[in-house]
Each structure stands twice: as C-alpha cells, then as structure tokens.
Design a protein that fits this description.
alpha+beta; four-stranded antiparallel β-sheet; 6 helices
Amino acid sequence: MRKWLVTVAAASLAAAACPLPTVAAEYLFGPQDKVRLKVYEWRASRDVIFEWTALNDSFVVGADGTLFLPFVGQIRAQGTAPGDLARAIGDRLMQHMGLGRQPDVAVEIVQYRPFYIVGYVTQPGEFPYRPGLTVLQALGIAGGLRTREEDMSRLEREVIVGQGDVGLLALSNVSLLARKARLESELAGSDDIAFPAQLKDRASNEKVAVAMEQERKIFAVRKDAMATQLRALRELKDFLEKELTSLGQQMAFHDQQIELIQKELAGVSALVQKGLAVAPRELSLRG
C-alpha cells in the first residue's frame, strides 16, 4: 500500500523542491484508490455498440489491494497501471462470458488515495494526492510551516506556498497543451500527434515527457478502437451486399416460376373452353 508520510522539519527544506521519492512515471494502483470503469463491446452481427452497464460504475480498491467486480469477480489491482488493469479486466470478461474477443475497457482514476503530513506545519493530517506532487507542494497544501516554531519570515513562507501553486499550474498547463495537441491530431486524422514547439523544446523535462507519452498512448488506443469499428462496419457491409445479391437471385427464380405457371394456365384454360380438359385442373393452377 503506497501511502505517503511526509515529516516536516527545518532540515527538510533543502530537499523541498525535489519530487517525492515514490513518484513514478506511471501511477500504480493501491488501496483506497477510486476508479471508474467504462466497458463497451462492438457486436457486428447487430451493428450496435453494447454497453456493459453493470460494470460502468465507480469502484474502490480494497484494503487487500483488489477490486470485486460484477461478471469479473475478484481481481488484483495493487501495483498495476490503469492500462494493465483494463487489459486484465478485458481478459477476465472474455474468459468468464465466453466472448470471441476482448471488450473495450477503459479505467479512469476518479480519486487518488491520500497521503499524510506531520510535523511543524499549519494543518498536519490526511490530504488527497495529486499526480506529480512534490514535497514543496505538499507543504503548501498543509498550509506551510508554523509561524512560531520556525525562523522563516512570513514572506519566505508565502514564497514556498506560491512556488507550490506555480508548480501545480505549470503541470496543469503542460497536461492541457498535450491533450489539446492529441485532440487536434485526432480531428485531423493524423498518424501521430503534432505537439507544439513549446512542449517539444522541453521534452527533456521528465514531467513534460510523461505528459506527452501518456497522450501518445491514449492516441494509439483510440486510433486502434476506431480502426476496429471501421473494419467491423466494412465486414457488415460486405455481408449485407452478398445477402442482397442472394435475395435478388431468389426473386428472379420466383419470377420465372410465375411466368411458367401463367403460360400453363393460359393453355389449360383454352383446352377447358374447348372441352378437352377438366375444370379442376384450371382451378388448381389458379390456386
């Protein structure tokens, strides 16, 4: 269980601007994380996208690090990334429900598990985690250092809090720029994301690189899903065209039968009028 406990003292200020040591390039689930699932299945035979409503809901990772889901049962979540968990859920659904292929599963983090701050801060306690959180930002969330128990002036404390806010805003700006680039590339039907120069020039920065890589993964997944849907639609179109051709051939055959019967009826009617054939034969042909 990856809960963070940050103890603040005067000696910790030298490392305050560094990221917390447990921050990874990719977030891994743990107890108390709240996730939202979105599960859909393309059914080509009916030309519909089926929604697994029983699974499209929010779930919390239990104290044992597992999720208990309808149709899936108990599945391990602790220590896995969102993409890995989505694939594991898709595999389990395909096995348990006898599906021919995996349904499309998306795992979204609704609420991160908390971290804890103790020591000489204004408001020690439990706080919600944010991706990319640093010790400096955690100090700002806890209200900064206490006034009477540190030698720092009010201005210095405000600088620390301000730097934490600026760091969060900068990270949010990077994420929004990367997302905008992905959406514009999807709209243009591009094969890859055209990131702006202000992100490319900072690609050596770890946070910028992580944001760009995450958007690339999302772009690839969405592109594959669209390709799968288009392929299914083409297969459905081919099937319907073949069925239409078969029905046309059947109609032509029936038209030939009707024409033959009409000719035979005309001949029998002429014979009945001359008394050379019996009326029941004519009636049977008219029936």
